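Render this sequence as a predicted structure.
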Amino acid sequence: MDPLTALKKHCWCFVCYWWLIFPALLLPHVIAVGVVEAGAEELADTEPAIDQGLGDKDGDGVIDARDQCPSTDSRLTVNNQGCPEKGMKTIKETVVIPFYPDTPETNTLKISQIQQLAIFARKYPSANITLTGHSEQSGNRQKNKAQALTRARVVKEILVSRFKIKESRIKLHTVGAMQPLMTVAAELDKKKNRRVVGEAKTEIKGQIKRWDVFQ
């Protein structure tokens, strides 16, 4: 065998040797790297997250890091420090007082509804009461409107004489048949629409609720 051929054969054997042995030498390093990476991932999973105060636990729109009132009701309006804002807000009590048919049941319900207005007025001395008389749609409009005002006067008299509410705190109003609850047959028309709507309302200082579509 000439020297050149022998050299080529020797080189080829050397390449084949490393081609076979190199993966075996590299395998332990690959396994070691995989173990280290797996350990790092496991460590990352077990380490607790650092709370940087960027959350909003009470849902008031102010991050925890700046929130000086961390337990605020999320329905309230708050300032930049997350504390409830205070101001004047309107509160009211509204009742519907039936006037038909003229039965003991109707009269009992009538008194209980009027009593609710009286309770509110006593609780809030600054509250005023508006009584709005409504009438049925059937019949003479002018006559019905006058009768609706008469019913409002009846409610006022009960508030003044029975529940001792000052007359100066009560206002009367009538709309007749202009605001019916429903348009129905004559008998049911009287039952549903012959009524007085009472509203006691005042303003008080307190925490202000956020506006939403249900208000």
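Summary. The chain is about 45% helix and 20% strand. The radius of gyration is 41 Å.
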